[in-house]
């Protein structure tokens, strides 16, 4: 029993702070190391003094006419947009607002299956009918490839009622497909290309990185400034550059989705990030890329450890790899990614962004330092020098076959339908009433409205045996699942 006044989250945060862990995870400011000096000073003195509301002189996010308007305009210039909106509920709210703006209720939208779960939230809110692109996984690393523009063309020909195309660029793992050709294809149909660029806000700051979604011709790009740059968590931006989008629609949707008390700390951190990056973005990104190159080179010399994208010919023509994302495999050592992540955390005080059965994902950003790189290399070298008789099996199981979804109801119809809870083993042939997204990385296996097949149930059993977690289901163990009552 704790004393009254005990603050469990504060305790946990303070404990984490004391451990002084090397951050290879989000947010990109890496404990404030990447932020503008002036903003750092202000935060050190009294952050509460900046935690304001819409009093005279401080403008209003929902009707910006003063400093917020000016700051958004400056961000638009920096990121190459016609208009930029500050977001205080992450890219999630930007994805919701974008899809609510470009489609009407009941219309069709073309989606990649490796979308983030917020896209299904948008389909529920906007009453959209999803059409899915086929999902192709890398045979060795099992991560999704971006859809080829040709596949998008085929789908647009086959389904002439599609009113918008949504793409993820780059993926969580840093794979960026050929978005310029995709934009050409999409615009032939005079419909908009909306891009989830949550993991690509930093692309504008180096010619060594893939070009940005807007440079590639996207109409809307949604970026998590907090993930790969230096804003506070939740602080994101939505950029518009388009001849076919009415940006007042976006303002209208954000008006009902965002809080009427948006945090000035979050907005200030977007302003600070913009100022900082306008001044030093290219230099800081150059330094980050140098650290990334160094780590990749060193990893290539460590026996038993490999980094995705070392041999770019694996994926040539399909995608470019963002060098700041290091997806590192331990399978040749007989070690799973999660076992490696646990060692890195406990023994070497290094925290990774994600681990799975085979790999870990480490994220670098302008807040990363060469010392972080040295710490990682020395930990990996040490791990590789040991043997793991009780580790995971050495061979990969081969590509996991993720079956294409059978959409019976639109997500909105299933979401609002009467539901009942059944045992998973009895759910075959029923229609899912909730999302099931194995985490990491959160790619939906089932969306509300999709048929639960025996293949999907078998895959859920298999993923459970790997200790995989699931986002979405009310019963996280997935012994039971909610299904639509009338099926
Ligand atoms: C690909 C992708 N899109 C969108 C989001 C949502 O972004 P946010 O956390 O800023 O709401 C995430 C979050 O992890 C993501 O990985």
Write structural notes for this entry.
It is a single chain. With 487 residues, the chain is α/β, with parallel strands linked by helices. It folds into three domains: 39-275, Type I PLP-dependent aspartate aminotransferase-like (Major domain) (Aspartate Aminotransferase, domain 2, 3-Layer(aba) Sandwich); 281-384, Alpha-Beta Complex (Aspartate Aminotransferase, domain 1); 411-484, Orn/Lys/Arg decarboxylase, C-terminal domain (Ornithine Decarboxylase, Chain A, domain 4, Alpha-Beta Complex). 36% of the residues lie in helices and 15% in strands. The chain is built from 15 helices and 19 strands. The strands form six sheets. A seven-stranded mixed β-sheet has the order 2-9-8-7-5-3-4, sandwiched between helices. The chain has a four-stranded antiparallel β-sheet with strand order 10-12-15-14. Strands 1-13 form a two-stranded parallel ribbon. The longest helix is centred in the middle third of the chain and has 37 residues, at 264-300. The mean pLDDT is 93. Bound molecules: pyridoxal-5'-phosphate (PLP).
